[in-house]
Design brief:
Layout lengths: L11 H9 L3 H10 L3 H11 L8
């Protein structure tokens, strides 16, 4: 799920980080070094549903 509280654009990295139990900054750094990261990020932003929990 995409995160509502820890988001920069769509909350994809925050949601992945929450799910894996690691800090979202690590996911963001990983996305910087993946060659097709903008395409992967946009696909995940479309496919992942938004977290409905309010913090």
């Amino acid at each position: 799920m995409r995160a509502k509280s820890d988001r920069v654009l769509f909350g994809v990295c925050g949601g992945i980080g929450d799910h894996l139990g690691i800090r979202p900054i690590m996911i963001r750094l990983l996305f910087m070094f993946v060659p097709l990261s903008p395409l992967i990020y946009l696909v995940l932003a479309i496919l992942l549903q938004e977290d409905n929990l309010l913090y």
